[in-house]
């Protein structure tokens, strides 16, 4: 098992790709602005935004990354998982829990139906800053069954200014301490290292340099992470739109791409490493 202070191989590749991206961007006369690219289907071509491909080190778009996925919650309503599978989606992450007392209304339905359709899926937990990491880990474990075929669990870390019951913004030390408790408990229970999801602002505020042995998943819907954030060498998954369209889902859905190779994705999907 990898030690906590070892960086996954895909991240080392990303550092090289980031350098290539910097050279490529230096030759560009313009880049995409802070307006989210509108998507009409998972395979729709979009203008080049200056992204660096891990596989080739050349300028790419999300469509150049073959491993694509979606993430869903109750807000997507009833999902036709057979249609999702037919669209070529490689993975789906499904909201399971929030805080220490909420279960997504459609988690059980999505969890069972995605597996029945043959869509590789994992569960995610939305973190709540007014409960401890241990409380939230126990809640996630209570509600998400062990499934050897499931993708690694995901811990969703972002500021939630819309929460009616918790306005706390804990400092760096508290955030990282409580996250560490959650991550260790969940990894021990499921036997897979959790992935950490974050928005750009939360990562900048609380997570720069933290948890180097975990894969990170970044929300950056206004452009490729390397164009929007200077701390992008740690990210393995890119959420590039919140307004995507995908067969099997009515309305908007988050769309994502894995930034590494097929081989490294298989390792991540099986173990979290």
Automatic annotation (TrEMBL):
<dbReference type="Pfam" id="PF01183">
    <property type="entry name" value="Glyco_hydro_25"/>
</dbReference>
<dbReference type="GO" id="GO:0016052">
    <property type="term" value="P:carbohydrate catabolic process"/>
</dbReference>
<dbReference type="GO" id="GO:0003796">
    <property type="term" value="F:lysozyme activity"/>
</dbReference>
<dbReference type="InterPro" id="IPR017853">
    <property type="entry name" value="GH"/>
</dbReference>
<keyword id="KW-0326">Glycosidase</keyword>
<dbReference type="InterPro" id="IPR002053">
    <property type="entry name" value="Glyco_hydro_25"/>
</dbReference>
<comment type="similarity">
    <text>Belongs to the glycosyl hydrolase 25 family.</text>
</comment>
<keyword id="KW-0732">Signal</keyword>
<dbReference type="GO" id="GO:0016998">
    <property type="term" value="P:cell wall macromolecule catabolic process"/>
</dbReference>
<dbReference type="InterPro" id="IPR018077">
    <property type="entry name" value="Glyco_hydro_fam25_subgr"/>
</dbReference>
<dbReference type="GO" id="GO:0009253">
    <property type="term" value="P:peptidoglycan catabolic process"/>
</dbReference>
<feature type="signal peptide">
    <location>
        <begin position="1"/>
        <end position="32"/>
    </location>
</feature>
<keyword id="KW-0378">Hydrolase</keyword>
<protein>
    <submittedName>
        <fullName>Glycosyl hydrolase family 25</fullName>
    </submittedName>
</protein>
């Amino acid at each position: 098992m990898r030690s906590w202070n070892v960086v996954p191989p895909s991240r080392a590749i990303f550092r090289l790709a980031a350098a290539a991206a910097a050279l490529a961007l230096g030759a560009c006369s313009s880049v995409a602005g802070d307006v989210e690219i509108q998507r009409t289907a998972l395979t729709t071509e979009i203008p080049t935004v200056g992204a660096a491909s891990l596989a080739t080190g050349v300028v790419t778009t999300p469509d150049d990354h073959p491993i694509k996925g979606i993430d869903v919650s109750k807000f997507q309503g009833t999902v036709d998982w057979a249609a999702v599978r037919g669209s070529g989606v490689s993975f789906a992450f499904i909201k399971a829990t929030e805080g220490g007392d909420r279960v997504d209304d459609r988690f059980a339905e999505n969890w069972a139906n995605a597996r029945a359709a043959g869509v590789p899926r994992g569960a995610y937990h939305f973190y709540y800053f007014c409960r401890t990491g241990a409380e939230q880990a126990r809640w996630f474990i209570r509600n998400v069954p062990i499934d050897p075929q499931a993708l690694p669990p995901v811990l969703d870390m972002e500021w939630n200014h819309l929460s009616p019951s918790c306005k706390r913004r804990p400092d760096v030390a508290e955030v990282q301490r409580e996250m560490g408790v959650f991550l260790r408990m969940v990894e021990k229970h499921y036997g897979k290292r959790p992935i950490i999801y974050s928005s750009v602002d939360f990562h900048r505020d609380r997570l720069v340099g933290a948890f180097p042995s975990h894969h990170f998943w970044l929300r950056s819907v206004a452009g490729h992470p390397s164009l929007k954030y200077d701390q992008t060498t740690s990210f393995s998954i890119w959420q590039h739109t919140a307004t995507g369209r995908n067969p099997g889902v009515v309305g908007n859905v988050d769309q994502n791409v894995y930034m590494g190779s097929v081989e490294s994705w298989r390792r991540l999907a099986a173990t979290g490493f």
